[in-house]
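Forgive a beginner's question, but would it be possible to get a protein, spelled out as residues, together with the matching structure tokens, please?
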Amino acid sequence: MDIYQIWTTYNKKWSKYEILAFSVLLLLTVIVVAGCVCRKKINTMQAMAVVMMVIFLGIVFGSTVFTRTSTVRQYELVPFWSWKAIFKYKDWELLKENLLNCILLLPAGALLPIIANHKVKWYRALLFGVLVSAVIETSQLVFMRGLFEWDDMIHNGLGCMIGSMIINFFMKNKIRD
């Protein structure tokens, strides 16, 4: 599948309830960060990064959980099963899927140092990515909207960590106001 096919396959039209729920969440986020900026708890760049993170995670959850069609409950509990299949069967489509899973949370990792207003340690970014992915995978399992697998959590976590490390490399120790 190319990127366009992935986008159109996994990003179906949102229902009215999904749009309403996301709009309310986004509005609350904007109100809270605006209040934090006014009280000088965070700077404008941090506030924009928080709003971008909420928008990004809304899109990710929409495409990986909420807009998918319900199927049967599916799970793969063997860690690194996908890599074994790639090497054993030369499954290049699975390799592409693994790489796309690494890329999926890379933008979230890139936003973490901006939100924190300082460099983020690699293991914290990895933990954040694994936790976000664990919520996605658990939601897929509970709502029967995809395959629950440890490999996705590992790849998503690595992507988040890489995104954070890239921004850490380019930023000074602390972002100036």
Summary: The chain has a mean pLDDT of 91.
